[in-house]
Amino acid sequence: MTLLTISTPEESGLDVDRWNAALGLVRNWAERDDRVPAAAVLVGRRGMTPGPQFFGRQRVAANSPRLRNDAIFLIASITKPIVAMGAMLLIERGQLTLNDRVTDFLPDFGKKGKYGTTIRNLLTHTSGLPDMLPNNVDLRKAKSPLSTFVTETCTVAPDFPPGRSVQYQSMGIAVLAAIMEQVSGMPCAEFLRREFFVPLGMHDTRLGAPDDWFNGAQPVIDRIAEIRVPAEQVQETEWNWNSRYWRQLGAPWGGLLTTPLDLGQFAQLMLNQGRAGGKQLLSPATVRAATDNQLAVLKELPDEERRFRPWGFGWRLQWASHANTFGDLVSPETYGHWGATGTVLWIDPVREAFALILSTQPLDPNGAPFQRVSNAISAAFQ
User: Fold this and answer.
1) Residues near 29 by beta carbon (within 8 Å), at least 6 away in sequence
2) What is the pLDDT of residues 164-195, one digit of tens each?
3) Backbone angles phi, psi at 70, to 5 degrees
4) pTM across the whole model
5) Which residue among 201, 237, 268, 287 is least packed, with the fewest CB closer than 10 Å?
């Protein structure tokens, strides 16, 4: 099933000159300034898209071949809201509630002041858990499985009592995925594949590359665009973002491998209020809840967090006054996510549009280049 129809820019609701100007910014990044080794852009409106646009090269080295038009990207933390929608699916089926305690599923989690942590806290980054574990690098060097990251998270003390503040927490998503596995009876990666990726025709999307991607005369793994890793990962070829270990780990906080068109399918599912063809993969109520400001009900949070840095369930909402805004021209109702490997996805329900930029250059701390492209894309929508 496909939710997106490839069309002309005009049929996709784009002003051609402004659209070409937006693409020119990305082309300059990749092919003139070498700001990014590779980048791909996809936009859509009301189910129509001009299709993915590819720039740069497949590998980091300057003499590498051009980026393939079937390139697969590691999208890092854009993984989080997709995992969150899997958890929301279990909630709409009555298998979880937002106020269930984590200890109902993982009894060992309740140590060191974490007993009161709920599913709601995991989905809104209000658990007090760390983004990364103190021994994160050691765990990766040891090529630890996901279960070890969860076990280690159960032993740490939170930085604040659950619900008292907001702190971005990748390990909260690791714990959430472990709960999803217990409730659904299958690993998070397989649950997402069955419930979302297969029905949506996202054939090139995996949370963790399967072994068969590495086999054959033309292995799928060759399609994965190589990332220009940060300095601390350059020598760590056994566990960095380009390693077989990381590509196969399937980290629910940042390990999704996908193509622009596949990811666009998921974005369109959200714009369709969970409907794909004749099937309702997610209920409209679930989509609305996931993309509303869910910090508003947490009375012990600082008012500044609730009002100016809102979160849905897994989705970051528009932070207009923050350095990492989705842009200056999107509607206030826009939601999406960023990824540390150099990726961003935003979905604007008011304009019935989405945009995604996938690159292979770790994010600039202030996200300014992405914001400039986002502004140019927003201006192109008529």
Assistant:
1) 35, 36, 39, 55, 56, 359, 369
2) 999 999 999 999 999 999 999 999 999 999 99
3) -120, 25
4) 0.97
5) 237
Token pair for 20: 């070409």
Q: Is the CB of residue 26 less than 8 Å from the CB of residue 55?
A: yes
Q: What is the pLDDT of residue 1?
A: 74
Residue-wise pLDDT tens digits, 116-146: 999 999 999 999 999 999 999 999 999 999 9
Residues 301 and 280 sit within 8 Å (Cβ to Cβ)? no
pLDDT digits (tens, 9 = 90+) for 219-237: 999 999 999 999 999 999 9
Q: What are phi and psi of 327, to 5 degrees?
A: 135, 170
pLDDT attached to residue 357: 97
